[in-house]
Design brief:
heterodimer; A: 505 residues; alpha+beta; 3 domains; 5-stranded antiparallel sheet; 15 helices; B: 405 residues; alpha/beta; GMP Synthetase, Chain A, domain 3; 2 domains; 9-stranded mixed sheet; 4-stranded mixed sheet; 14 helices; 35% helix; Spore germination protein (chain A); membrane (chain A)
Chain lengths: 505, 405
């Protein structure tokens, strides 16, 4: 990782040779920002300037070393006449104790170094300067992952600092084939992005495609990993996510070990993984920390939950407005009894309830925790009781909407839950128009779409369609470890029939 | 660009397809009047149709009832059943919904005149779900049967439906006959259908009011009674309890019932048995005179459930004795019942003709045209095999123990 490689299109001006000019050049480039500190020093009798950004860098090590060297100079007085070049060399090799030090000779490199939290040491009379890595960002400590918590399993979650995050993964995979490649992306924010993969496991074709996409992604700014997710996904108009994300180092590590590729973005605790398959969204890291048989049942339950979250309201609408003959007589009578006096058609009723629920959910997320609870209480009372008692909404519909919502929350990945939430409404409309027929047609279309979808050239439904028997150890169910030492087959980019193969391998 | 345009056009067309059709046959639950029972009676100019419609407010479990009846019975005349049902809409505030019909009741006079036109409607109407039971109102109009409130079940049709199920399973003297079965038996030639009968016991008028259910022993009740024998689609007579059982045995429609045999040897009292399994097979053979004759083999499995005699049940001999008694009794009953049906109704409700058709198709061809009249004189031999399986929780009869002391 080379933090001082300039990628921006800064003026590739060489550094001036005098101290004052240097300071002026920096001021000209970065403005007279109040957080940039210019500290004058002296080394081996030559005047120098230490420049850093307050709060980003911790230059105390450098300053200490310089002070110490100055004291030594005094004792060794008389050894005058050292040329600036020699002094810089001396400074770099013997005096400064920082691990990462390199010589720079352009203004652009100097500004990059400063903004990344480095410290620039300039000696008068040289068109060169030293850049030292002195990053000292105030950042969150490693805390429990809140978005994907588990009962059993590691508690650590990623933080906003990319170097912490890479370290969290390195610690789990102590293997020399774990490789990282650094990118600096975003003209304005110049955010660090790291692509991580297991050499030999990750498909080079996928890797190449990812690099391509990252290089082509013309983003002015990156504040969160979703900025990148949206640029690299294969299909823009799909309700299904094709880039996986996780806040948990163990999840990312296991994805890397499966030969998938992780993308870390500085400033975001959410790490992206490609390729992402449909089934990945139904796997929770806890599946691997609990007994295999239990985990299998729970995983099957999740697929079931997805179906419930997607279809229950529309199924209810279809059955009660078109196919009453399919309801057992006693249930039908009970449903009719409940619907007596309800002023809305079933579809409108369902729509009102679903939208109310979405509003409540949105309100609950944004509000501070203490108020959030009272909102949910009001919500339950309003929907659950008052509406039913006032005879506006039937009790059965409340049950339907509740089970839908709860099933939605049972999905381990938030983004596939969003897919279900989105698709629920077209299903409801079609069921109100055509009954079960409409639901089936949309399901078929959805099936086709899923089979056509790809993530980094890998079919989205891999291991179901195309069916891979060996993957079934860890697809719908998870076999116990003795039966499945290696869980998952490698993911290879699907050869494009329209394009001739690109030579290599 | 072109592709996008095409996609947009396709989406537009799809949208039209969905919006222009309207909502086709959408109906909200609270627009439905669920018909649970349909009664058909004969009128001079057509039919008198009675529909029992559920009042959903009253069957709701939670809300306390307002005291009105849980079903409403509408009656209307019409040239045909659909005609009558259409006219009925002048009285019913909602769309009549026939899919959840539980029972269809025919008045006896209609049944005697022939059901075929009604059956045509019932088989043709796609709303009817074909899982309802058919009944004949014995000695009354179907309207009267459908105007009686029942205890336990709030919906009288539901009460009829479930009592047919239960009694057929445990008692075997009623028939659970659905439309499809009736038509099959009617159409195949070598057999005639039966239908279960239902009768209003007590005062018909009193039965209409919910109030009489407050009594611990309601005076008016609906009772399943015997089987109606049909020749083709016309009712020709009624069978009593024993004869009805025989019919059910013969058409393998018995899953369990009870019976009793007198104590073997001396003494009075009887031994009660419950039939656990029953399987009857009919074999067509060539008789001595060259005409077809039939052998009935009836295999029964039974348990002893009541012993009133001093019999040593630990002795396998006495078990054999009971089996023997039971065999003789069942054979006698079956044979005499069949003979009576032959003589009185000349209607092959047992399916002998069907057996002949299957086993000796060439013979069948000769008798096909006048099967019912041949059936009247056909020779039928009955064989019964009984196996007693269990004697219950105690071995020896208490009477024997008591007198042994």
């Amino acid at each position: 990782m080379n933090a001082y490689e300039s990628k921006g299109n800064d003026p590739d001006l060489r550094l001036p040779e005098s101290l004052n000019e240097f300071q002026e050049a920096i001021i000209e480039l970065m403005g007279d920002s109040s957080d940039i500190v210019y500290r004058e020093v002296q080394f081996a009798g030559i005047g120098g300037l230490v420049v850093y950004v307050e709060g980003l860098a911790d230059p105390s090590g450098i300053l200490d070393s310089l002070m110490e060297a100055k004291n030594e100079d005094r004792t060794r007085e008389g050894e005058n006449g050292v040329s600036p070049g020699q002094a810089l060399r001396e400074l770099k090799i013997n005096t400064l104790s920082e691990g990462r030090i390199m010589e720079i000779d352009s203004l652009g490199a100097a500004s990059v170094c400063l903004l990344a939290g480095g410290t620039v040491v300039y000696l008068d009379g040289l068109a060169k300067a030293l850049a030292a890595g002195t990053q000292n960002l105030k950042q969150r400590a490693v805390q429990e992952a809140t978005s994907q918590s588990v009962v059993r399993g590691p508690r650590e979650g990623f933080t906003e600092s990319i170097s912490d995050n890479t370290a969290l993964i390195r610690r789990r995979i102590q293997n020399p084939s774990l490789r990282m490649r650094y990118f600096r992306m975003g003209e304005e924010t110049r955010t660090s992005v790291v692509v991580m993969y297991m050499n030999g496991k990750a498909d080079p074709n996928i890797l190449r495609e990812l690099y391509d996409k990252l290089e082509k992604a013309d983003l002015p700014s990156i504040l969160e990993s979703n900025y990148i997710e949206e640029m690299i996904q294969d299909q823009r108009y799909s309700p299904f996510p094709t880039v996986y994300n996780s806040e948990r180092p163990d999840v990312i590590s296991s994805a890397l070990l499966e030969g998938r590729i992780a993308i870390l973005v500085d400033g975001s605790p959410f790490v992206l993984v490609v390729p992402a398959l449909f089934m990945h969204y139904f796997q929770s890291s806890e599946d691997y920390y609990q007994r295999g048989d239990f985990a299998s049942l729970v995983r099957l339950l999740r697929y079931f939950c997805f179906a419930i979250a997607l279809l229950t309201p529309s199924f209810y609408i279809a059955i009660t407005t078109y196919h009453q003959e399919m309801i057992p007589p006693n249930l039908l009578l009970s449903l009719i009894g409940q619907r007596e006096g309800i002023p809305f058609p079933a579809f409108i009723e369902a729509l009102i309830m679903e939208i109310t629920f979405e509003i409540l959910r949105e309100a609950g997320i944004r509000l501070p925790k203490s108020i959030g609870q009272s909102v949910s209480i009001v919500g339950t009372l309003v929907i659950g009781q008052a509406a039913v008692e006032a005879g506006l909404i039937s009790a059965a519909m409340v049950i339907v909407v509740s089970i839908t919502a709860i099933s939605n929350f049972a999905l381990p990945a938030f983004n596939v839950g969003i897919s279900a939430r989105l698709l629920r409404f077209p299903f409801m409309v079609l069921s109100a128009l055509f009954g079960l027929y409409g639901i089936i047609v949309l399901l078929i279309m959805l099936g086709l779409h899923l089979c056509k979808l790809e993530s980094m050239g890998v079919p989205y439904m891999t291991s179901f369609a195309p069916f891979r028997l060996s993957d079934q150890k860890d697809a719908l169910v998870r076999l116990m470890r003795p039966f499945a030492r290696k869980y998952f087959g490698s993911l290879k980019k699907q050869p494009d029939p329209a394009r001739p193969s690109e030579g290599s391998s | 660009m072109k592709e996008r345009l095409r996609g947009l056009m396709l989406a537009g067309l799809l949208l039209h397809a969905s919006l222009l059709t309207g909502c086709w046959n959408r109906r909200e639950l609270n627009d439905l009047a669920v018909v649970v029972a349909l009664g058909v009676d004969l009128e001079e100019t057509g039919y008198l149709v009675t529909a029992q419609v559920v009042n959903p407010n009253e069957v709701r479990s939670q809300r306390s009832s307002s005291g009105s009846a849980s079903v409403v019975t509408y009656t209307e005349k019409g040239v045909s059943i659909p005609d009558a049902l259409q006219r009925m809409l002048g009285k019913v505030p909602r769309q009549l919904y026939l899919s959840h019909l539980r029972v269809m009741v025919f008045g006896e006079s209609l049944a005697r005149k022939g059901l075929i036109d009604v059956l045509d409607y019932a088989a043709r109407e796609h709303d009817l779900r074909n899982d309802f039971y058919m009944l004949v109102a014995k000695g009354s109009k179907a309207r009267d049967v459908l105007s009686v409130v029942t205890p336990f079940e709030k919906i009288p049709a539901e009460s009829l439906f479930s009592s047919i199920m239960v009694s057929n399973k445990k008692w075997a003297a009623t028939g659970r006959i659905k439309l499809q079965h009736f038509i099959t038996v009617l159409d195949r030639g070598g057999s005639n259908p039966v239908l279960s009968g239902v009768r209003v016991e007590g005062d018909k008028k009193k039965g209409r009011n919910n109030d009489f259910l407050r009594e611990i022993r309601p005076e008016t009740m609906l009772k399943h009674e015997g089987l109606a024998v049909f020749r083709k689609d016309k009712l020709v007579g009624w069978l009593g309890e024993d004869d009805s059982k025989t019919v059910n045995y013969m058409i393998n429609n018995v899953s369990g019932t009870t019976g009793f045999v007198p104590c073997p040897g001396r003494g009075k009292g009887s031994i009660g048995v419950s039939i656990m399994q029953s399987k009857t097979s009919i074999k067509a053979v060539k008789g001595e005179d060259g005409k077809p004759a039939f052998k009935v083999r009836h295999v029964l499995e039974a348990n002893v459930d009541d012993v009133q005699c001093e019999l040593d049940l630990s002795d396998p001999g006495s078990i054999t004795l009971i089996e023997k008694e039971l065999e003789d009794l069942a054979r006698g009953n079956t044979a005499s019942n069949i003979r009576e049906v032959q003589r009185k109704f000349a209607s092959d409700i047992y399916g002998f003709g069907e057996a002949l058709h299957r086993q000796m198709p060439k013979e069948w061809a000769k008798y096909k045209s006048e099967w019912d009249s041949y059936f009247k004189t056909a020779k039928i031999e009955v064989n019964v095999e009984v196996a007693l399986r269990k004697v219950g929780s105690i071995l020896q009869p208490l009477k024997k123990d008591m007198e042994g002391q």
